[in-house]
Design goal:
The complex is a heterodimer of chains A (134) and B (509). Helices cover 60% and strands 0% of the residues of chain A. Chain A is an all-alpha fold and 134 residues long. Chain A has one domain (18-131). In chain A, helix 1 (21-45) runs antiparallel to helix 2 (51-68) and helix 4 packs antiparallel against helix 5 (115-131). Mean pLDDT of chain A is 86; it is low at 1-13. Chain B has 509 residues and is mainly alpha-helical. Chain B has two domains: 9-232, no CATH class; 245-396 and 450-503. In chain B, helix 9 runs antiparallel to helix 13 and helix 13 (368-392) packs across helix 17 (472-486). The longest helix of chain B has 42 residues, at 146-187. Mean pLDDT of chain B is 82; it is low at 1-5, 22-26, 227-240 and 486-509. Classes of the chains: A mainly alpha (134), B mainly alpha (509). Chains A and B meet through helix 1, helix 2 and helix 5 of A and helix 1, helix 5, helix 9, helix 10 and helix 11 of B.
């Protein structure tokens, strides 16, 4: 995947969005939300003690970490075609795309002080998802 | 050479740290920024692929990588005279790595002498190349200028970020290596003394390395999260593998979830609460099973099925609140932190690398009696929380995305979960609202099934709570076992007779 195929709708709010940082984070949040939804759907179809519940919660918390980095007034794009496209992907694909999107993030910026932790979380989740057969 | 028309670095100094620029020279094709991105990329790949077999090679390579990182850090222009607070993290890391290297040299015990890790070595070489490049041309960087200063800060962050990811990967490998050792020992019939105060799998000889690499990881992370002065000031960092960790995590979760629910709470937070409660139920089933296997919990043919019912109810309720939680929704930070800690604390005792450990394996883990007491207490408290969550379903102004609610309304009516409308086929959400992607009030069938799911959760959690409370006597036994574990040499209570056949009747994955 290239930089992002998610089209931003939010109005640029400051200089960080000049290089697409917020749009990139918004795309990461969408990918992770979809990944959490899919993992939880699989978990609900499995037993109550399935390890998928744990993975789903981990992905949702990573989604929340990405969302928390966004400005308060940032609006995520709403593209039905895109959402339908996301539903076609596996949770592992969604996590991998999210990780790829974090690569150019300017982690030195004060607004992204927890960006490194997001990267570690994503790499851990990818390893866990692979271990669970995704 | 007259035929080499490419620019030399001296011609493009200002682009040394620009990650978007790749200066073309006859000697190298990468800018310092590019090299640091390469380190980041390699560290990520390492973390995604790492396993227990890599532990030895990673440990041998780590000190050299830190030395190279420190070399690059020192080469960056604009260092202030004297001791610079900004440099203390890398200095601290370097000292920690130097002692690791000293311990490794001439060592015959694990990991001993042997190969290093190719990925880490590649990162080390890249850092050395970057340092050489900066030394050669960095003096001409106008570091006092804002833009150059920012680039230098970015370079330092990237260096520390690469070290943080790598240190975390070494720690993951060490834990996996410990697990592999325990598994191998059990398969060959040998007894293994599991660690009591650190990770259960921080067994000799990896345990000491887990301690030392954790210190390195904490140092790097603290720099990146801007908390380094606190860390250096002796901030107490709770040992992540404390046997009482789960009890504390669940107690904190109880407090944070109630505090959050006392306010007007967004659906995304209720989704988090219900999903975390589902996780607590699932993990409790695993722990109860393991505790029975270990002989520290009175077996019961009602407990696990009751907890399973509660877990399914929480999950069903969560999927409905999920309809109302849009992507990008913010979570209350203390609530999210508490949920993350609950997840981590359970994983410490229930998981093997990436998936669930067997009850037999969990049964041998230190801290199981404390964890079982804590998890049963959480199950007992779950019914009260279910009542509070159910009140949220009656919030008058609840809204959600039109499309999701339209789909849910039709599905619930079709499946008979919601009352069919007397007036025949009803359009619950207007197509205009769906097209405009508006947030709309809950359609009657969705509100009805949300309440029904809440009631079902109250019922299931009340049953689970009652059954869990019946284990009060058992918990006394667990507490006695816990006290015995805390006093070396103290007599342990006799385990109850195990009727594992009953437990195995519970639905399992």
């Amino acid at each position: 995947m290239g930089q992002t195929d998610l089209q931003p709708k939010g109005t640029p709010v400051d200089t960080l969005n000049a290089d697409g940082t917020w749009d990139r984070l918004g795309s990461i949040a969408q990918l992770l939300h979809q990944a959490a939804t899919q993992v939880w759907t699989d978990a609900d179809a499995a037993s109550a003690d399935s390890p998928l519940h744990d993975l789903g919660l981990g992905v949702y918390l990573a989604h929340s970490r990405a969302s928390a980095l966004l400005p308060d007034d940032y609006e995520l794009p709403e593209d039905d075609d895109l959402l339908a496209d996301l539903e076609e992907r596996t949770p592992l694909q969604l996590l991998t795309e999210a990780e790829e999107l974090t690569r150019p993030l300017p982690l030195h910026q004060p607004d992204l002080v927890h960006g490194s932790q997001l990267v570690v979380d994503l790499c851990d989740l990818i390893r866990e998802a692979r271990g669970l057969g995704y | 050479m007259a035929t080499d028309l490419r620019l030399a670095y001296a011609d493009i100094d200002e682009e040394l740290f620009d990650v978007d620029q790749i200066p073309m020279t006859s000697r190298d094709v990468r800018s310092v920024g590019e090299m640091l991105f390469d380190v980041d990329y390699l560290a990520r790949q390492l973390l995604m692929d790492v396993g227990g077999d890599d532990a030895g090679t990673l440990l041998r390579s780590w000190p050299t990588m830190v030395a190279a990182a420190e070399d690059l850090w020192a080469s960056l222009p604009g260092r202030r005279p004297g001791v610079d607070e900004r440099d203390r993290p890398i200095t601290s890391l370097s000292a920690q790595a130097a002692t690791i290297e000293s311990s490794l040299s001439g060592r015959k015990a694990w990991p001993g002498q042997g190969p290093t890790n190719p990925r880490v070595d590649q990162m080390t070489q890249t850092l050395l190349n970057a340092a050489a490049l900066v030394r050669r041309y960095g003096a001409e960087i106008p570091h006092e200028q804002t833009e150059a200063h920012r680039d230098l800060e970015a370079a330092r962050t990237r260096i520390m970020h690469g070290l943080y990811l790598t240190a975390h990967a070494v720690n993951v490998a060490l834990h996996d290596n410990g697990r592999n050792r325990v598994t191998d020992a059990r398969e060959s019939g040998r007894r293994v003394q599991l660690a009591q105060q650190h990770s259960p799998y921080a067994v000799a000889p990896t345990g000491v390395w887990v301690d030392r690499m954790s210190a390195c990881e904490n140092t790097a992370r603290s720099y990146l999260t801007d908390r380094f002065p606190h860390a250096l000031g002796g901030e107490a960092i709770r040992p992540v593998d404390d046997p009482g960790r789960l009890a504390q995590a669940l107690a904190n979760w109880d407090i944070q979830s109630h505090r959050a629910l006392a306010r007007d709470l967004a659906p995304a937070n209720i989704l988090l609460i219900t999903r975390t409660q589902g996780l607590i139920a699932g993990a409790s089933m695993v722990l109860v099973d393991a505790a029975a296997t270990a002989g520290v919990l009175e077996p019961s043919d009602r407990l696990v099925p009751a907890i399973a019912d509660a877990g399914r109810s929480w999950s069903n309720l969560a999927s409905r609140w999920g309809d109302l939680a849009p992507p990008g929704a913010r979570l209350e930070e203390p609530l999210a932190r508490a949920a993350a800690e609950v997840r981590a604390a359970y994983r410490q005792i229930t998981h093997d690398t990436t998936t669930l450990a067997t009850p037999e394996v969990i049964a041998t883990r230190p801290g199981l009696p404390q964890a079982t007491v804590a998890t049963l207490r959480a199950i007992e408290a779950g019914s009260e929380l279910a009542h509070v969550v159910a009140e949220k379903a009656d919030t008058p102004n609840l809204t959600g995305p039109a499309r999701a609610l339209s789909r849910r309304a039709h599905n619930d009516v079709e499946s008979g979960l919601a009352s069919p409308p007397t007036e025949g086929d009803v359009v619950w959400v207007s197509p205009a609202d769906i097209l405009a992607k508006r947030l709309v009030p809950l359609p009657p069938p969705v509100a009805e099934t949300l309440r029904a799911a809440s009631d079902a959760t109250i019922e299931a959690t009340s049953t689970a709570s009652s059954v869990a409370s019946l284990h009060e006597a058992t918990r006394d036994r667990l507490r006695a076992a816990e006290a015995g574990a805390e006093r070396p040499g103290a007599p342990r209570p006799a385990p109850p007779r195990l009727e594992s056949a009953r437990l195995s009747e519970a639905p399992r994955r």
